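Support request, please re-run this one:
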Amino acid sequence: MKSLSELPLVTKADKARILAAPRTAVAHRDLLESLPAMNAVQTGGAASGSVLPAELSVVAWNVERGLFPDENAALLAPFAPDVVLLSEVDHGMARTSQNHTTADMSEALNMTYAFGVEFLELDLGGATERAFCTDDYNARGWHGNAILSTVAFDAVTMIRLDDHGHWFSSDELDADLSQPRVGGRMALAAIVPRQTGAVCVVSTHLESNADADHRAGQFDRLMDAIDAFAPGLPVIIGGDLNTGNHLPPDFDWRNETLFANAEARDYDWDATPAGITTRPSLITPHPTRQMKLDWFALRGVSFVGKALIPAVAKDGKPLSDHDAIWCCIS
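Re-run finished. Output below.
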């Protein structure tokens, strides 16, 4: 996987090819493979240290596009994070003022970053998102995951968890064509140096518009890829796993099969703080939405502290529809 300081722009010819392509999984796979920005990781920012301490402060947070990067950074600063695992970050989207929200957060926190494109958005988003648009076009249209770190990465890679075009292909039974986009759920994994030996940190985002078996398959692919990328290293996975999403109201999120599958491979979930992790936000103003979607999965490390960080600014403004989760790793 290439690591670049800038991702290649999607050209007008690329966009025309995408719009003209049949909405099939086969066509989507060809498109995904042909777009350089979808097959590389962008790195940037400046590290403030050379090696992580033995005891790590780690945050995982779905920032819901990253509307407020400076306020997001201010919310996390009291936890002095060594690693931040982000999902739903925009880069060159009208709804977030065409900003690179990952780079903005990394600068505010004095951290380096890795960013990968989950989706190339072909439109401006839903009605509540359009209210934030500063333009009628996306300069880049990229939406994805990121890792922030106080030290430089020894290695970084993207792990694609699907390529069939879940939000693109009309031949998929569970397709959702209301939000057209190219791409698929993915993870970023990085190996970072630590006083007690290197550790693999992973930011991931599983499919919302799917069932438990679909998400379990994605998490299985993630664990396989981690074993290949960082064999024998301790692992910290954090992110929005969408547990219980798009399932009947009486479905208990604890019945998602990904939990037991991970435990069978020596991961544990104990570093995840108790409590619901969603809240009404400016983009997702649903007062009855109460879900536990965000998790840490650890292997080869232990936690010594954990907390839920309410995603609320000092003035009471919601910063995301997800609260952040924090743990201290030893």
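The chain has seven helices and 14 strands. The radius of gyration is 18 Å.
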